[in-house]
User: Fold these one by one.
Assistant:
Number 1:
Amino acid sequence: DLGIHVLLGGRGGDRFGVATLSSQAAAFPRSRGLPLAALNGDFFARHGPCLGDPEGLFIRDGELVSAPNGKSAFWMAPDRSLHLGQVVSLLSMITPDGASWAIGLNEERQERPVVYTSVLGPRTPSANGTEYLLVAEPGTLMPLQAGRRLAFRLESIHSGGNTPIPTRGVVLSLPERFETPATPIPVGSLWTLSTETRPDLRDVRTALGGGPALLKDGQPTAFQSSDARHPRSAIGWNAEHFFLVQVDGRQPGVSVGMSLTELAHHLARLGCTDALNLDRSEEHTSELQSR
């Protein structure tokens, strides 16, 4: 009856935010089970309006919280098997006239539109641009799940950001210079949100980004690494077991940490066939920029 769960740093592990690992484990709802072990997850936004936003793919109890970024991730399939690979986002919003806009999900808005859900908080973090408040049509499954097409009705249009995020809906936030249809989009119009990814993650309950992948199908991967030793976190598995590995470091005379190559070798010695490096809860460094 063991399972792998992922948590966010905010309230009860189901909202964006930052918190210590021990406090997150203590807040895990006992109705969902007893935490036996925990370690750092994906890299995340340490500053800005989306504090705690996972950098890549994040699926918590079936809810798609953060879109994949094309880098390495692991996921647990409906049959409880574990998988490792690069996941590409195909997320898009389809307008009433059939145009398809590539979108981000629950992230700081920059050049492309972003869809916000209530997992981010009560209101959108943007301070400018146009935002469409969209409410899920009857029969539409909420919260968002991967690999689906969901119908929404445009309820209202807002300018200047800080738009309330509905529980059964989303807010589509457009950058100031984003090109919209010449004909105004009417309130009450029907929109479609696609949460497709490659590979297809439909019905996946748990997924988490990270990087780099260290082992794949029993072989080391071609990741880039320096000889620098740091504290490390990683998840690995084989056909029978999974491993949560934490390496201490930066304590001269006590623990010096590991390089990524050393970490990969260690996971292989444990018997892992697949393994993914995770956040070591320190600043991003150049050795981790290519994942």
Number 2:
Amino acid sequence: MPRAMWAGIAAMSAIVPFMEDMQYRVRKRIIGNVAGVICFVALYYLLPPSIYAYIGIIGGIGVGFFSKNMDGRQYLIRFGALANAAQTYGLKGAVSLRVIQNVFGVAFALVFCIVFYWMMSKSCKLASNQV
């Protein structure tokens, strides 16, 4: 899977100790990823091709402006990775890889944590019955 670290980073960013918080983060991650990709594609078509290599820098500057607002950063963080991937895989390949791998990463993390919490609750009940 090319750019497999995108799925790992997405999973890592979604896992938190409480399931309610995790479900919220999974939703925000997916929405932020799709919105960031849409913003990137809009810039890609609006800017001249000579600027494509600098879209990542534009995103980095934007992240600095939104340093206290994670919602704003969610959209801009993707620009650098997408700009690099677009050079290798083309725009369609980079966008589809980014969305698919991020959705897979957070969905996998959510399913893993649901199964893990279920197994831990069964283990705790079994341990309390033996005491």
Number 3:
Amino acid sequence: MGERKMKKLLLIGSGSVHTYNYYNLIKHYFDDTLLITNVVQKIEGNISVIKGDFTIKKPIKAWKNFRFIKKAIQEYTPDLIHVQQANSTAFLTLLANRKKNIPVIVTAWGSDVLKSPESHFLLKKMVRYNLKQADYLTCDANIVAKKMLELEPDIK
């Protein structure tokens, strides 16, 4: 009988209650989790937490953040990547994962698809890219799902 493969999750998201609640909901489905977040909080389980930055306003900062996430993916070698919010966090992660082809779930939380795309045409392009490139999409409200489909009708 073969040896069971360890299941590893790379969870990437802001230090919001949503990210930490999500981890507490799914932690028993993975043997190990690496969380990259901008706000580190105390959390228990088979989880390592490292502080990251997801800003893209300055090109040099965006490049450094992209490289940081790409290195984390290469070194951690997750089986699944789950990104909390379809904003710059997802954008940097999807770009960093392009050649690795690890399945990526993007969870939209609201303002990332309801407000941000309306504030600037580049943000709209970024959110559309995120929606189109993610392997799986989730959200917790019908209004968010409807807006996701409106922004990117060709969602897989």
